[in-house]
Amino acid sequence: MNFMTDTYTLILIFSTYLISMLVYHFLLRQSRRYTLRKANVTAVRFSSQTKPVSGGIGFFIMFILAAVFFLYYLNDTVAVTPQVLTIGLALTIAFFAGLLDDINNTPPLLKFISQLIIAVICIYSGITIDISSNLWFNYCFTALWIIGIMNSVNMLDNMDAVASVAALTILISIAANNFLGSRSVAEEHFIMIIFFTILAFLFFNWHPSKMYMGDSGSQFLGALLAIFAIKYIWNVNLHIPSDNSVLRTFTVVFLSFLIPISDTFAVTVNRLLKGKSPFVGGRDHTTHHFFYRGLNEKSIAFLFFGISVITNFTVVLISNDIIGILHPVSISVTVLAFGYFVFAYINTRLTKPREDEKSSV
Question: What end-to-end distance do the CA atoms of the chain give, in Å?
């Protein structure tokens, strides 16, 4: 089956994008009557807190429609395995935990408990990072990964379009690794549905945004990216026979998730050094400090998109043995990525908002 000429695939792409646009348009109109906005309106966000946080609801609606489509129209080709049900349950828990936070501003502990539950049910169903021969080490490492990425995506959603473009580029590498590797057609189509759902949302989330994804969206996306990265980035590379499989695996994970990892690292370290909780909001993210340096919000989104496209393209090349981890391209991109990681952190230490910027944001 040729991916680019397959009629079914093209119909799926077009219909997903069209339906998603209609769903978001409907949610935006309904928000004028039944307003779902961040419960904690005093929370620190770079832009206004008064915009609707309906993006996550759109993600979940499209997820449900995809599930119904697969179960009732492709039931002869899609096997409903315990692992498939687990992924569905995990994403559902992530969405509703985030939605509850959007409505009631729940304490961080409750969010952590929901993330831990998601990690446990994934581990129980066999979704684990096979980094060691010690199963308990793998279980703990997997839980740390899932919880970490869910929080990382949540923290990255602090400026228009940034979390969306980062998620899109990571999904591209996940989809490409699936397509070029073992190829689960059902998962390929599911990833495509989520990709074009986010792409449609980007129309409403691009600066100046009309809506945010909210915690319901960031928790949903964080869980999805964490789970599928285990299958198509972590384990794909760990299972390739090589003397440096661990090195290549950590390298491709770092490259794929460079944007959220860099932001989470900088924010966490800076807040801990100041004696603050990493989970309390603030205008101290890498995105904000690029703004203080003079970039506008659109430029920052384009910058993050460009960086993430380059790193995730390299991830696909390495993961599918098109180039090796010690290939000049791999080394060059990795060095540049690490350079960005260091610069992004140093920039948060050097730049401060001007008085006019403090009053405007």
Answer: 51
Structure tokens at 204: 């409403």
pLDDT tens digit sequence for 143-171 = 999 999 999 999 999 999 999 999 999 99
Q: How far is Cα 361 from Cα 46, in angstroms, rounded to an integer?
A: 6
User: What is the C-alpha to C-alpha distance for residues 211 and 160, in angstroms, rounded to an integer?
Assistant: 9
Separation of alpha carbons 264 and 270, rounded Å: 10
Find out whether 238 and 211 touch, Cβ atoms under 8 Å.
no
Residue type (1 letter), 216? S
What burial class does residue 311 get, using C-beta atoms within 10 Å of its C-beta: 0-12 exposed, 13-18 middle, 19+ buried? Answer: buried
pLDDT at 207 over 50: yes
Of 18, 87, 102, 112, the residue nearest 56 (C-alpha): 102
Pairwise CA distance, residues 187 & 179, whole Å: 10
Q: In 3D, which of 179, 25, 353 has the Cα closest to residue 187?
A: 179
